[in-house]
C-alpha cells in the first residue's frame, strides 16, 4: 500500500519532492512546503518575542532547523497572560530511534524546561501496524518498549510527562476519537492524506487517534487548554484536520512548531529507519557509527587537491548538517562553513569530528537508556 499525498508534490521536474506522514522523498524545498501546507515562517520578530521570555535563541531556531509554525505566537501570548500550555509530541514505533527523531524531542525537552509545561507523548503502535504489511503486532510492541527507553533517556521531567501507547490506552482515547471522526469526511481525509481505493480502512480511520492528545489536556484540566506540538513538518497533515474540528468541539486549535528533516547520511532524503545504513541509531556501537560516518556523502570535492583549490559546499553536506544540529555551537558552525568553502578543511576532518562527537553523545545516551528501564512505570499514562 502506498499513500501519495498528491497535494504536496512540489518543485520542477528535476527537483520534485514529496512529504507525507509516511515518507519524505527528494530534496525538500521548505519555502515551497510552507506555501503548500499553509503554515507560517518563524520570523525574526517571533524569535525576539521568544527570546524575551527564555533569555536566548535556541541553536535549532538560530540555524533554522525549526522554521515554520502555526499559532506559536498565540501560545506565547496566552502564556504571557498567565495561561499555561501543554506540549504534545510522539513516535510511530516501527523500528529503532535514530538521531533525526531526537531533533523534535530534544527541542520539546527544552520547551518543557523553559515553560515548565506538561507533556503528552504518544506512541502510535496502531498506525505502524496498519501502515505497510511487513511487521507483526508483536514486532511493533517490541519496538514500542525499546522506543520508550529512548524517550525517557531524553530527560523529560517524570512528574510532568505522560507516555500514551495507543493500543494500551485506547479506552482513554476512543471517546474523543469518536467526536473527531464524526466530523471528518472521507473526502477531506482523502484530500489531506492521499488515501486511495487500495488503502486499508484501518489507515483511513486512524487519523482521529493521533488528533486526540491535542484535546486530552482540556479534559485533564477540565477547561480549554492550549497545546503546542513540536514535530518535523511531515506530521502536519494530521494537525490540519485536527484544527478543522477543534472549535466545532469546543477546544482551541492545537499550535505547531515545525522542524526540517535531518538528512540521511547518504544524500538529501530524510534520515529514515527504513534505510539503516544511512541512519545513526541511538543503540549503535562506536564501530558502527564510525563505519556509517566514514562512508557518508559530503559536500566536498572528489580529491584533496580539488578540495584545497575549490573548497566544499556545506549547504548540501549531511555531515555538516549533523554537526550543526547536535554538536557545533553557532560560532563553531560558522567557522566550519567558512573553512570548508575556502578549502581549508577536508571532509575527513569533519567526518572525524562527527564520529567522535556522536560516539561520546551515544555513550552517554545509552547509559541513560539503561537507567530508563527502571523508570517506565513512572512515565506511563494512567491505566
Ligand atoms: P515518526 O515515528 O515517523 O517520527 C517521530 C518524530 O520524528 C520526526 N522525524 C524527524 N525529525 C527530523 N529529522 C528526521 N529525519 C525525522 N524523521 C522523523 C517526526 O516528524 C516526528 O516528530 N505518526 C507519528 C507519531 C506521532 C506524533 C504525534 C509525532 C503521534 N503523535 C505528535 C509528532 C507529534 C510518527 O509516526 O512519527
Could you outline the blueprint of secondary structure elements for this entry?
Blueprint: E1 17-19, E2 24-26, H1 30-37, E3 40-41, H2 44-54, H3 59-62, E4 66-70, H4 72-80, E5 86-91, H5 99-115, E6 119-123, H6 125-130, H7 137-153, E7 161-165, H8 166-181, H9 186-193, H10 201-205, H11 207-211, H12 216-221, E8 227-232, H13 236-246, E9 255-259, H14 286-294, H15 304-310, H16 318-327, H17 330-341, H18 347-372, H19 376-379
Parallel strand pairs: 5-6, 5-8, 6-7, 8-9
Antiparallel strand pairs: 1-2, 3-4, 4-9
Helix pairs in contact: 7-18, 9-13, 14-18, 16-18
The structure holds tryptophanyl-5'AMP.
Q: Care to describe what's here?
A:
This protein has 383 residues and is of the alpha/beta class. The chain folds into 2 domains: 13-265, Rossmann fold; 276-372, Tyrosyl-Transfer RNA Synthetase (Orthogonal Bundle), CATH 1.10.240. The protein is 50% helix and 10% strand. It is built from 19 helices and 9 strands. A 7-stranded mixed beta sheet has the order 3-4-9-8-5-6-7, sandwiched between helices. Strand 8, helix 13 and strand 9 (255-259) form a beta-alpha-beta unit. The longest helix is centred in the C-terminal third of the chain and has 26 residues, at 347-372. It is globular, with a radius of gyration of 21 Å. The protein binds tryptophanyl-5'AMP. Tryptophanyl-5'AMP (TYM) binds next to strand 5, helix 5 and strand 8.
Amino acid at each position: 500500500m502506498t499513500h501519495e499525498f498528491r497535494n504536496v508534490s512540489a518543485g520542477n521536474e528535476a527537483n520534485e519532492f514529496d512529504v507525507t506522514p509516511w515518507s519524505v522523498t527528494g530534496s525538500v524545498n521548505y519555502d515551497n512546503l510552507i506555501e503548500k501546507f499553509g503554515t507560517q515562517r518563524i520570523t525574526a520578530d517571533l524569535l525576539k518575542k521568544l527570546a524575551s521570555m527564555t533569555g536566548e535563541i535556541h541553536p535549532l531556531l538560530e540555524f533554522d532547523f525549526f522554521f515554520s509554525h502555526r499559532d506559536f505566537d498565540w501560545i506565547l501570548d496566552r502564556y504571557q497572560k498567565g495561561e499555561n500550555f501543554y506540549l504534545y509530541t510522539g513516535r510511530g514505533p516501527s523500528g529503532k530511534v535514530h538521531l533525526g527523531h531526537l531533533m523534535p524531542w530534544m527541542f520539546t525537552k527544552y520547551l518543557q524546561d523553559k515553560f515548565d509545561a506538561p507533556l503528552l507523548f504518544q506512541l502510535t503502535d496502531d498506525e505502524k501496524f496498519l501502515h505497510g504489511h511487513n511487521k507483526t503486532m508483536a514486532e511493533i510492541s517490541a519496538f514500542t518498549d525499546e522506543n520508550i527507553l529512548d524517550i525517557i533517556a531524553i530527560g523529560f521531567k517524570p512528574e510532568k510527562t505522560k507516555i500514551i501507547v495507543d493500543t494500551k490506552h485506547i479506552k482513554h482515547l476512543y471517546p474523543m476519537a469518536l467526536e473527531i471522526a464524526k466530523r471528518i469526511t472521507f473526502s477531506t481525509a482523502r484530500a489531506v492524506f492521499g488515501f486511495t481505493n487500495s488503502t486499508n480502512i484501518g489507515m483511513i480511520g486512524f487519523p482521529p487517534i493521533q488528533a486526540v492528545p491535542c484535546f486530552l489536556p482540556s479534559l485533564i484540566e477540565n477547561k480549554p487548554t492550549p497545546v503546542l506540538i513540536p514535530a518535523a513538518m511531515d506530521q502536519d497533515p494530521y494537525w490540519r484536520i485536527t484544527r478543522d474540528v477543534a472549535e466545532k468541539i469546543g477546544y482551541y486549535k492545537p499550535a505547531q512548531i515545525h522542524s526540517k528533516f535531518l538528512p540521511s547520511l547518504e544524500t538529501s532524503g530524510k534520515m529514515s529507519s527504513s534505510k539503516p545504513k544511512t541512519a545513526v541509531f541511538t543503540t549503535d556501537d562506536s564501530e558502527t557509527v564510525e563505519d556509517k560516518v566514514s562512508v557518508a556523502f559530503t559536500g566536498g570535492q572528489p580529491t584533496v587537491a580539488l578540495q584545497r583549490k575549490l573548497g566544499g559546499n556545506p549547504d548540501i553536506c549531511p555531515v555538516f548538517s549533523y554537526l550543526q544540529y547536535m554538536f557545533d555551537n553557532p560560532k563553531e558552525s560558522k567557522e566550519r562553513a567558512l573553512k570548508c568553502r575556502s578549502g581549508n578543511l577536508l571532509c575527513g576532518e569533519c567526518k572525524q569530528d562527527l564520529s567522535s562527537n556522536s560516539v561520546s553523545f551515544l555513550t552517554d545516551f545509552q547509559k541513560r537508556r539503561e537507567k530508563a528501564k527502571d523508570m517506565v512505570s513512572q512515565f506511563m499514562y494512567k491505566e
